Amino acid sequence: QVQLVESGGGLVQPGGSLRLSCAASGFTFRNYAMSWYRQAPGKERESVATVTIFGGTNYADSVKGRFTISRDNAKDTVYLQMNSLKPEDTAVYYCKVVRFRIDYWGQGTQVTVSS
């Protein structure tokens, strides 16, 4: 069965950095685009970044130039490098894969940006 396990969240000061990881299993990782989403308290879940099977990327305007998504097909893992973090980046971050039109989500990892 499809499993996505996020890690790397935590508390960081404004301007700091974190790298999130999402370890995937249960499907042929290299054949699927992977995405990161986030959900802040009281807000809807929103797309943050996507990496295609060819390594192409796209980002939400709010994170362009600060976040970088990447994938390692040898490790079945997708990463989100987050730099210049702002308090408004505080949220639970989730990775997602769409397989046969079904969305699969990880359990999420909390990122808190605060001084």
Tags for this entry?
single chain, 115 residues, mainly beta, 7-stranded mixed sheet, 4-stranded antiparallel sheet, 0% helix, globular
Can you put this structure into words, describing what you see?
- It is globular, with a radius of gyration of 13 Å.
- Strands 2, 4, 5, 6, 9, 10 and 11 form a seven-stranded mixed sheet that branches. A four-stranded antiparallel sheet has the order 1-3-8-7, with no helix packed on it.
- It contains no helices and eleven strands.
- It is mainly beta.
- Strand 7 and strand 8 form a beta hairpin.
**Rg measurement, Å:** 13 Å
| Number of H/I helices | 0
Query: How do the SSEs run, as a string of H and E?
Result: EEEEEEEEEEE
Mean pLDDT metric = 97
Low-pLDDT runs: none
Write down the overall geometry.
globular
* Beta-strand percent range: over 45%
Q: Approximately how much helix is present in the residues?
A: under 10%
The termini sit apart by: 40 Å
Overall structural class, as computed from helix and strand content, comes to mainly beta
Record the SSE blueprint.
Blueprint: E1 3-7, E2 10-12, E3 18-25, E4 34-39, E5 46-51, E6 57-59, E7 67-72, E8 77-82, E9 91-99, E10 102-105, E11 109-113
Task: Write a concise synopsis of the structure shown.
The protein is mainly beta.
